[in-house]
Amino acid sequence: MTPMSGGDGAVDESDRPPAVVPPGERGATRIADRVVAKIAAQAAREAVGPLPPVAAPPHATVVVHHDTARVRVHLELGYPCDIGDRCFQVRRQVVQRVRALVGMEVPEVAVQVERLHPAQSRGAAQGRTR
Fold first, then answer.
1. Rounded Cα distance, 106 and 119, in Å
2. Is residue 41 exposed (0-12), middle (13-18) or buried (19+ Cβ within 10 Å)?
3. pLDDT tens digit at each of 130 positions of the chain
4. How far, in Å, CA of 96 to CA of 94, rounded?
5. Among the listed residues 14, 12, 73, 84, the one whose alpha carbon sits nearest the alpha carbon of residue 39
6. 30, 38 Cβ separation under 8 angstroms
7. pTM: predicted TM-score of the whole model, two decimal places
8. What are phi and psi of 128, to 5 degrees?
9. How far is the CA of 78 from the CAs of 39, 123, 128, in angstroms?
10. Would you say 93 and 44 are in contact if contact means Cβ atoms under 8 Å apart?
């Protein structure tokens, strides 16, 4: 039991302010690579927009070193589309979301387009041939 403060001069330890620990000795928060990868994949999904039904959702791999994340995003796109613009949008969204949610800098986002899914022509969709 802790002594209570009373007439005998004893001090209750719960009344003492907590000791101030210098920032360098407090420890650190480490965010796992897989958590950053999930954030990056979700950001890529947001940037790409609607995909063809047969396309796999974007996924990401990440290497974290200190407060820096290097990201590789794998995605499939519908074709025809502006591939360069889609990749730019993915890079920008991944950098913004990782920085906002995790506080890490993202100096590199490599976007790898795994597959292009051609849009079916109207005649092919209705089963017609030439």
1. 33
2. buried
3. 555 555 565 656 667 777 788 877 777 778 899 999 999 999 999 999 888 889 999 999 999 998 899 999 999 999 999 999 999 999 999 999 999 999 999 999 999 999 999 987 544 444 545 4
4. 6
5. 73
6. no
7. 0.72
8. -90, 150
9. 23, 18, 22
10. yes
